[in-house]
Amino acid sequence: EELKAADARLALSEERFRLATEMSEIGLMDSDLLQPGQPFWLSYNWLYRLGLDHLPLPIERDTYIQRIHPQEQPERTKKFAALLAGDSSLYEMEYRIRDREEKWLWVLVRGSIIRDECGKPIRLIGTMTDISELKNREMQRYYQATHDELTSLLNRRGFMEAIAMRFTDRQPVTGAFLVVDIDGFRFINDVHGQEVGDEFLQAFARHLKDSFPQDTVLARFGAEEYLAFCPELMDAAAAINLFQPLAVVLLQTSAGSFAARSSGGFFLCGGQEGTPESYLQKAVLAMHHAKIVEKSACYIYEPSMQAMAVRRHAIRERLSQALQNQELFLQYQPIYAIEAITERVIGFEALLRWRSPSLGMVSPAEFIPVAEETNLILPIGEWVMREACQFFSGLDAQKGSAATVSVNVSVRQLLSPGFSNRVRSILQQCDLPPGQLGIEVTESIMMTDEQHNIAVLNELRAMGLSISLDDFGTGYSSFTYLQKLPIDVLKVDKSLIDEIAQPDRNALLLMESLVQMSRLLGYRIVAEGVENSDQLVLLRQIGCGACQGYLLGKPMSAEAVREQYPSIGS
Questions:
Q1: Residue 261's beta-bridge partner residues?
Q2: Burial, 411: exposed, middle or buried (Cβ in 10 Å; 0-12, 13-18, 19+)?
Q3: Within 10 Å of residue 40's Cβ, how many Cβ atoms?
Q4: pTM above threshold 0.70
Q5: Which long-range contacts (C-beta less than 8 Å, at least 24 apart) are formed by 280-284?
Q6: Nearest alpha-carbon partner for 121 in 74, 82, 93, 64
Q7: Pairwise CA distance, residues 447 & 191, whole Å
Q8: Are 32 and 40 in contact (CB under 8 A)?
Q9: Which residue has the higher pLDDT, 219 or 222?
Q10: Distance (Å, rounded) from C-alpha 387 to C-alpha 368?
Q11: Which of 183, 261, 343, 548 is most enclosed, with most CB atoms within 10 A?
Q12: Euclidean distance between CA atoms 450 and 248, whole angstroms
């Protein structure tokens, strides 16, 4: 009777324990390590969850192990071997395992070894806990910390961690780092709103994914900057070709299609000393070089770019004080009418120059982009216009003529509120008739807020100003598109003029076509960069009305203009 009572108490205790473990979702594991196949017992609730409830107990260990995720198998084997060898007293691991619906569960398994008096392992007991919910929350937090919310690409942290996982100290980094920057994106955001801007960035990210091999690591960093790592890419020509689909691409949004023009920089690493961070920084330098030298292009990093970056930083630091310290000055290059054999001056283009006490003479190609990036172009541009108007208003040689002085105006100036009113005020203060001021703009007006810029140009033109499209022939303009623009003058870029005297005559025929088309559309043409008499003769033969360049007149100071040109426009 006592034995029966003891058995009953034991059965009740085991039932309570079984119910408690099943209610707590904890699985109990008990394995006989002495038997072939190391059979083990597992709580029925977990046998059911894993789809093993149809098997008789005990089940073979391999049957269970086969359900563990392949990526976790090596670590599990290593830890279990260490436990059996006595190198660790507790087995503890998180891994994924397939459930009865073939889905992956995250489980936490803890176990310990029971040994005989000789220290031989004879039994493994442990527990299994479902940690899927906790793991999913952790993975969600990690995903949010390592991915860009808008495009679902990696962010900078995720990018660097992905690179670090690929390489160790014993395995040097090989491949290509690429940095891509979308030129002019901020204008889409400012003009059409953030929602359209977000659509544009998402479309660009999709295009980025489609343009690169599947093993490329892609990320978004900053508003319009993207990162890529291309494993094993070491050929410069192949790298540039890989970038080409990104240079100019048309992207669709709810507000219409927009051209995304990108600048890129590559750093090719072939096992040299350094870190992924330093390699990425070199790619950034190459990208900035591309934005300065030639937008919508891509450059491979060269050591000389480091020195250029240092100089650019110095320019940025000193340019902010250049206007205040009176380091900026203007030179004036004459524009000639060339229809007759005797050329005559019909105006001047005001050219901005900078003489820095510490940097010396700084090229406009260096400091103008910096001025635009820092918005210093607004006060500097207003100073240029005022200085040019004061000079020309006080020039006795031009009084009573139709001669003009032209100033270059950036897109940022056109976009600034009240630009037309400031121009009107400057003309009034300088007592210069509006017809004697010319505004020169580049094709970049088409890349930004076209409607706004055209409206501003129309206001200026209605005031009597002459509007010139500068550097024509270097961009993507067609005559069909030009008809939308309120312009009076096409200034043909020097790159075309340089070729018109070549034996194949292709450039000359093209220039002749431009002259004829311009005449039909009511535009005047000015050929820029005329440097030899052969060019001048050919331009005169095809009917080009005006030119400027070193052949007839170099840029000069205001004092030199007064001395050399007693009459203008007559």
A1: 183, 248
A2: buried
A3: 22
A4: no
A5: 280/160, 280/177, 280/179, 280/227, 282/177, 283/177, 283/178, 283/179, 284/179
A6: 82
A7: 12
A8: yes
A9: 219
A10: 17
A11: 548
A12: 18
Over residues 335-383, the pLDDT tens digits come to: 999 988 889 999 999 999 999 999 999 999 889 989 988 899 999 999 9
Short-list 516, 462, 454, 456, CA closest to 490: 516
**Rg, the chain, Cα only:** 37
Which tokens is 33 given?
A: 């390590």
Structure tokens at 246: 């990104």
pLDDT of residue 13: 64
Are the CB atoms for 109 and 128 separated by under 8 Å?
Answer: yes
What is the distance between the alpha carbons of residues 201 and 475, in angstroms, rounded to a whole number?
Answer: 24
Alpha-carbon distance of 179 to 160, in angstroms, equals 13
* Cα 147 versus chain centre, distance: 17
Mapped onto helix, strand or coil, the DSSP state of residue 406 is: strand
Cis upstream peptide for 58 (omega within 30°): yes
Write out the DSSP string of 90-137. -EEEEEEEE-TTS-EEEEEEEEEEEE-TTS-EEEEEEEEEE-HHHHHH
What are residue 287's phi and psi, to 5 degrees? Answer: -65, -45
Amino acid occupying residue 565: Y
How many whole angstroms from its chain centre is CA 542? 43
